[in-house]
Amino acid sequence: MESESTSWSRIPPEIVHEIAAQNADDVASLCAWALVSKAMRSLAIEHLFSSIHFACAEDFSEWQEMIHRTPRLSSIVKKVKFSDPDEDWLELHRKVQYPTKLSEAGRPEIPTMPNVRTVEWEGEDVSDGPLINVGMAVAHIALFPNMKELHLKNITFLYLAELTGLLGACGKITVLTLSDVVVHLVDGDSEHSTEWVAFDPTALEELAITHCNEYEDHDYLESFVQLIQTSAPARLRSLTFVGDTVNERNGPCSVPVMEQLLRLASTSLVNLTVDPRFLEDSENEELIEMFGILPAFPALTMLSISLCCDNSQAEQILNALAAAPNLTTIIFRIMLINESEVQDHIDFKGILATGFPSHQSMQNFLTQKFPMIQRIGCYIYAGRESELHWRRGLRRRMERRLREHVGADVESYLELKWLDPDHTPVAYSKATGKAPWKFPSWRAEPDTETSDCEAEKWESELS
């Protein structure tokens, strides 16, 4: 009888690689693959270790042991995340009862990872705020000499020099995300700042600012933008300004910061995402005025605008936007950020009533303003714990109501998607219609048949 390895060897390599890629997120299946043969183990390892997570100082020692057994692991890793242990990590590492904080880790003794392109760093939650040990971070960033993307989340820096020092250690990165990033003092230096390399933003192509507007003092972002302006990156093609998904009235950053960046990138900008939500009405008015005085965007092809229940600025932004002759795609991100079905229902009705351009047919409005338009996306964002992700019948009825609202004349342009908390499309199960992640254990998972019945009530109330 033929062995399993012999049977697998008859499958063309490109098909085997495709099968592995389709199961890249299925750890159990990949581990099973590794038991079949040496060839299958080699292929499984490439996916199992393409992304790794350091959650405490002990993780570095464990990785050192793994590298000693399998040296090629260092060249397999493509993405690295640093953050505090979460529930999943603690469940998998029960033997580590008292993990040492990342901020207390010593200088790295592990080999460099030359193929890492993306690094995520999430701040450590302490009583004074989610601080970061910048000296430790700079030392470990050196492990990734070819990194291109840095995503910072929930981090408080004492000085602006600490932020720029960390960025300087990354080399010429092309993608930068600042999400919930705070700097207490613009002036002043860390004790190690003289040892750090200056930040060079000349290669920057994508910049995302997410909810950095919680505090009244925005000087750090203004100073940071001035630093970018001085270097004038010539290929800045994507800008993202997104507010807080928990508190929908907290905007992404101050309007002057947005204006400076938009002017800087006006000739090269290809993709723009705007979340027009601010605490003060005066800031909302300032935002519309800003779009009216901006220069033309000759390279812009995609514009995304977030819609909330109390936000009617999408039409004003589109009207105020200067010439964008090559704009082919407009995406409306419908933000449903509640755990409550009732509140999501109310918000959805409010967005349909006030969020979309409404004074004439959407086709006429958009094609007259942007004659090259080819695609109109309506992407519905719902939080991870939203019951919408488990109710296929309800989602279908919402989609139907949305199509009716925007009008049949844009059907050929229209694209509908559901987004997860990371703003990426959700891959629902074809069999059950449910999201791929687990429903919160402290709540009863909605029943599919029951949800369909409840969706009929939604549909009648939406009429």
Strand adjacency order, main sheet: 1-2-3-6-7-8-9-10-11-12-13-14
Instruction: Tell me the span between the first and last alpha carbons.
Output: 65 Å
**How many individual helices?**
17
User: Which structural category do the helix and sheet elements fall into?
Assistant: alpha/beta
The proportion of strand residues reads: 15-25%
Largest β sheet strand count, sense and barrel closure? 12 strands, parallel
- Estimate the helix proportion, in percent: 25-40%
Arithmetic mean pLDDT: 80
Low-confidence stretches: 1-5, 449-455
Could you give the count of β-strands? 14
- Computed CA radius of gyration, to the nearest angstrom: 24 Å
Shape verdict:
globular
Region (Disordered): 432-463
Biased composition (Basic and acidic residues): 454-463
Protein name: F-box domain-containing protein
InterPro entries: LRR_dom_sf
Characterization of the model:
- The relative contact order is 0.05.
- It is built from 17 helices and 14 strands.
- 37% of the residues lie in helices and 18% in strands.
- With 463 residues, it is an alpha/beta fold.
- The protein has helices at residues 4-9, 13-22, 27-33, 38-48, 57-69, 73-76, 87-92, 134-141, 160-168, 219-231, 255-264, 281-293, 314-320, 341-354, 362-369, 392-406, 448-462, and strands at residues 51-54, 79-82, 118-122, 124-126, 129-131, 149-159, 175-185, 206-210, 238-242, 271-274, 302-307, 329-336, 375-382, 414-419.
